[in-house]
Amino acid sequence: MFRFRTGIAWRDLPAEFGPWQTVWKRHHRFSRDGTWDRLLAVAQADAAAAGELNWQVSADSSVMRVHQHGLNMPRSASTPGSYTGGGGESQEPGRAG
């Protein structure tokens, strides 16, 4: 969980967690065999029973930088060929916009 909270690479895990390869292997195994899914389901059930479950969505305001060669490109009047039309985000868990 530390890695996901801080956003560091596996190789940068603090030594107190042990060798990063061991931590990665355990995480990979837990992901593959459904351990993380079962832990999440139990935590959600406990939170729902206590009335503490809130599905409110929080948006991230990340900054995206333009590649140095894309900065001075002239704008096209038409939409790009890969334009999908976008769409809103769903606030229901597990459903994308």
Verbal overview:
The model has no long low-confidence stretch (mean pLDDT 80). It contains 3 helices and no strands. The two termini are 27 Å apart. With 97 residues, it is mainly α.
- Reading the helices and strands in chain order gives HHH
| Unreliable residue stretches | none
Based on CA inertia axes, which overall geometry fits? flat
* Helical fraction: 25-40%
Question: Could you give the topology of this structure?
Answer:
Layout: H1 2-6, H2 20-33, H3 35-49
In short:
By secondary structure, this protein is mainly α. The chain has helices at 2-6, 20-33, 35-49.
Features:
97 residues; mainly alpha; 3 helices; 0% strand
